[in-house]
Amino acid sequence: MKRIVYGIAAVIFVVLVLSSMANASLDVQITVGSAQINPLQSQTITATTNERGIGIVLVIQPAEGSPFTDSLGSHPALLVLWNLLPSDTKTDIIGKIGGKIVSYKIVAVPDQGGDSIVLTFPEDFTGILGDPSTVVTGKYMVIFAFLGASGCKVIGIDFDCGSWFVIPEVPWGTVATLATSLCALPVFALYKRRRPM
Predict the structure, then answer these.
(1) Which in 11, 37, 74, 183 has the greatest CB count within 10 A?
(2) In-domain check, residue 193
(3) Cα gap 35→165, rounded to integer Å
């Protein structure tokens, strides 16, 4: 099944590569459901575009890894789409990713655009390096790079970024007990100092 999907994606990419460039106003947006989530929770990601075409949604996790471009050969459909991006767009994306763990999802908008594609991280994503997850606390970044097409002509390339934080879960009962104990220490010290002997 994956080979069929990769084959269809490769045909679309070849058509896009062989077509000429035209001028139009392509606009893409990426939004996340929550600004903060707890470890192991899922995050909703919404990718929106005003044109038909195909794109990549990349999620950068806050864990260090080797450069994701070294592993693109293991993901043929992603590699073909990556090679269609202009050099300056690739440079911008590589600069934002650095040496972090990356996951991806290829999205296609077959209609006129204005469509929103709702994804769930980590469930809908494939890891380039490491498994997609929200185990590590810190800042997660999402990038949406999109090639818009009108008929068989590429009309533009655009990308957008978003982010969210995975924050550590705090056991409120422990925090309340600790805060009460810390507040009681100065009161106890004051009581002991003023107590008549």
Answers:
(1) 37
(2) no
(3) 6
Cα(79)–Cα(69) distance, rounded to whole angstroms?
Answer: 9
Q: Does residue 187 lie in a domain region? A: no
Residue type at 164? W
C-alpha to C-alpha distance for 27 and 45, rounded to whole angstroms: 17
Q: How confident is the model at residue 155 (pLDDT cuts 50, 70, 90)?
A: low
Distance in angstroms (rounded) separating the CA atoms of residues 191 and 197: 12
- Report the chain's C-alpha Rg in angstroms: 24
Taking 60 as the threshold, does the pLDDT of residue 7 lie above it? no
What is this structure's pTM? 0.72
**Number of structural domains in the chain:** 1
Look at residue 115 and give its three-state secondary structure: strand
Specify the DSSP element, H or E, that contains 88: helix 87-97
- CATH code assigned at 122: 2.60.40.2550
Q: What does the DSSP assignment read for 22-49?
A: ------EEEEES-SEE-TT--EEEEEEE
112 in a domain, yes or no? yes
Q: Which residues contact 51 (CB under 8 A, 6 or more apart)?
A: 24, 26, 109, 112, 113, 148, 149, 150, 155, 156
